[in-house]
Design brief:
This is UPF0223 protein FHE72_09045. The protein contains four helices and two strands, in the order H-E-H-H-H-E. The chain is mainly alpha-helical. The protein has one domain (13-81): Annexin V, domain 1 (Orthogonal Bundle), CATH 1.10.220. The chain has a two-stranded antiparallel ribbon with strand order 1-2. The model has no long low-confidence stretch (mean pLDDT 96).
Length: 90
C-alpha cells in the first residue's frame, strides 16, 4: 500500500480508525473478497461519520484516486447482492 487514506481533521481518533476500517474492507473486496455482513457494518459506521452524500462522494473519490479501488462499485454490489455471504470484485 503506497497511498494515504482520506480523513477530516474534525474527526475523532475513533472516527478516523472506523473510516480506515471501511476503506480496508473496500480493499479486501478487490483483493480477496470480504464478508458482506462485515462490509455492511463498516459502511453503516462510515455513514454515521460521513452522513452527507456530497462529502461521502468527495472522500470516496479521494480514496479511489489514490488507491484505484472504487468504494461506489463495492457498496453498489453489496446492496444488489443481499443474499451473498461474500462480496468480491474479482
Amino acid at each position: 500500500m503506497e497511498y494515504q487514506y482520506p480523513f477530516d481533521i474534525d474527526w475523532s481518533t475513533e472516527e478516523v480508525i472506523d473510516v480506515i476500517a471501511f476503506f480496508e474492507a473496500i480493499e479486501k473486496a478487490y483483493e480477496k473478497g470480504v464478508s458482506r455482513e462485515d462490509l455492511m457494518n463498516r459502511y453503516k459506521r462510515f455513514k454515521e461519520i460521513v452522513p452527507g452524500k456530497a462529502e461521502e462522494k468527495r472522500i470516496c473519490n479521494e480514496f479511489e484516486e489514490s488507491s484505484g479501488y472504487s468504494s461506489y462499485h463495492v457498496v453498489k454490489k453489496m446492496k444488489e447482492q443481499q443474499d451473498a455471504a461474500k462480496i468480491s470484485m474479482n
